[in-house]
Design goal:
single chain; six-stranded mixed β-sheet; alpha/beta; Immunoglobulin-like; 505 residues
Length: 505
């Protein structure tokens, strides 16, 4: 046999068989089942992330005291009498830690409970209050560290608010904590768990409780601002929000009904004859004043047209110009509904996105709110040709159209002027655009160098161009409202009330 054959036979013998050799006769499966039943169960591994230790946390006091014990042991290595003190301190430290753990975990009825109270709809650009309530179920005094997992959009980071709670059944076993969030973007915001960390007087360890379940809240346009203006409009107190009292000029009012006098009514509308007749009917005593209520012209279309193009993405006070325009549109349309007019909405960028024909009622306000909630800015230039086609085709009856946009240069405005002039022939058009707050700050800042003089001169030229745009629109018979983002709502509602008082729709 050659050497090659011997090496080949040795390699073949070294290869294990892939299957056991065949057995003759029937196969006994019962023995395999007995071996499986008697096989040892898999060994379980203890994990710190499971079980009761998953909610155990060590406090800063624990580490400080532990460091002190270690320092005593180090001193005992050089000075033997300190070793006895180190051992006593270590024993006392271990006993205190064990007692602290027993206080937090040994009682079945003990624990912390908590709730989170917030609105389903948060208000964009406003401070929204979140209320947290904590209750102590332990039979001893507890310090609860309250940590609410706020939505990631806020980047809200804090170590928890400590709240001292009395024992269960005593006064002070329930406390509330409030904090506020100011969202700057519309959309859905997800809240996590409400985490409560219980700490006894020893303060060595903490036990975690998950109180409130994760929840979701939607951020809508400024609902708080809308409600504030609605309350003032219904009570005839809009002057408190900075709105001007407008005198009706050249408008005749028709008598509607006689009603009881309420604070804020014009005393000149008191109906003394009806009041006297009512006094006689009641025996001449305790008669309330009656006033005449007049009906003004109502049910006029008021449309807010919002530009969603790239020029509306400029930031101001954490919000974009589009967000300020959306908040102002909501307040304006709600005020129009309160005044008895019909409110409508139109949004556009390179094409028309949304058209809500003018209508009245609470359902119309809900549709407007939901439509504004779903709007998002675009990076494209707006198409005023598409806006004109939509206004001409869908808005047949003459009404007031307030166009929220932003013109940076006069040349850009003049390119869109033919379409704006055609809309102004069919409706009462008011173009609402904002001044550049950064340029305004440069114009008011003192120039301390030659470069500062050039910068200030350029800023003044740009601010002058904005005012020229407003004057050019007025010369074409188009209403213009140049305002700042912070005063956008007040100035827009003021202009609407002035036009309505004059009957100049």
């Amino acid at each position: 046999m050659s050497g090659y054959d011997r090496r080949r036979r040795q390699r073949t013998r070294a290869i294990p068989h892939a299957r056991p050799p065949s057995r003759t006769g029937p196969i006994d499966r019962s023995a395999d089942r007995r071996r499986q039943r008697t096989a040892a169960p898999p060994r379980r591994r203890w994990r710190l992330s499971a079980g009761p230790l998953a909610d155990l946390f060590l406090s800063a006091r624990f580490f400080r005291l532990g460091l002190g014990v270690v320092v005593l042991f180090v001193c005992g290595a050089f000075w033997p009498p300190a070793l006895w003190a180190a051992r006593a301190a270590a024993f006392a430290f271990a006993a205190a830690t064990f007692a602290d753990v027993l206080l937090l975990w040994a009682t079945r009825s003990g624990g912390l409970q908590g709730t989170r109270e917030l609105d389903d709809k948060l208000s964009m650009g406003d401070e929204n209050e979140i209320r947290l309530t904590v209750r102590n179920l332990y039979r001893t005094r507890i310090v609860a560290h309250v940590l609410d997992e706020a939505p990631v959009q806020f980047q809200h980071r804090h170590a928890g608010t400590p709240v001292a709670l009395a024992a269960r059944g005593h006064e002070g076993d329930r406390r509330s904590v409030t904090y506020s969030l100011r969202p700057t973007e519309r959309g859905a915001y997800g809240f996590g768990y409400l985490l409560l960390y219980a700490q006894t007087r020893l303060g060595l360890v903490l036990r975690r409780f998950r109180a409130a379940e994760p929840a979701e809240a939607a951020v809508y346009p400024s609902i708080q601002q809308m409600r504030r203006y609605a309350f003032l409009a219904e009570s005839n107190r809009l002057e408190e929000a900075g709105l001007k009292r407008v005198r009706r000029v050249g408008q005749t009012l028709e008598f509607d009904q006689v009603r009881s006098y309420v604070p804020g009514d014009d005393r000149r509308t008191i109906n003394w004859k009806a009041t006297a007749r009512r006094g006689l009917a009641h025996g001449g005593a305790g008669a309330a004043l009656l006033v005449n209520q007049y009906e003004e012209e109502r049910a006029q279309p008021v449309i807010a047209a919002v530009d969603m193009g790239r020029t509306m993405r400029s930031p101001f006070d954490g919000l974009t110009l589009l967000d300020h325009a959306i908040n102002s549109s909501l307040v304006l349309l709600n005020t129009a509904l309160i005044k008895g007019d019909r409110a409508g909405l139109l949004t556009f960028d390179h094409e028309v996105r949304t058209i809500l024909p003018p209508a009245r009622g609470r359902t119309q306000l809900s549709r407007i709110l939901e439509s504004l909630y779903r709007q998002s800015p675009s990076f494209r230039d707006p198409s005023y040709e598409a806006l004109y086609a939509a206004v001409r085709g869908r808005l047949k009856r003459r009404g007031l159209v307030l166009l929220f946009t932003n013109f940076d240069t006069r040349a850009g405005m003049e390119r869109q002027l033919p379409y704006l002039s055609r809309i102004a022939k069919q409706h009462r058009l008011v173009v609402v655009f904002s001044e550049n707050t950064g340029i305004r700050e440069l114009t008011t800042a003192p120039a301390e160098s030659l470069e500062g003089v050039y910068v200030k001169s350029t800023a003044q030229a740009l601010a002058m161009e904005k005012r020229e745009i407003a004057r050019a629109l007025e010369r074409r018979g188009i209403g213009a409202l140049l305002t700042s983002p912070e005063a956008l709502t007040v100035d827009t509602v003021n202009r609407y009330l002035q036009i309505k008082a004059r009957g100049a729709f």
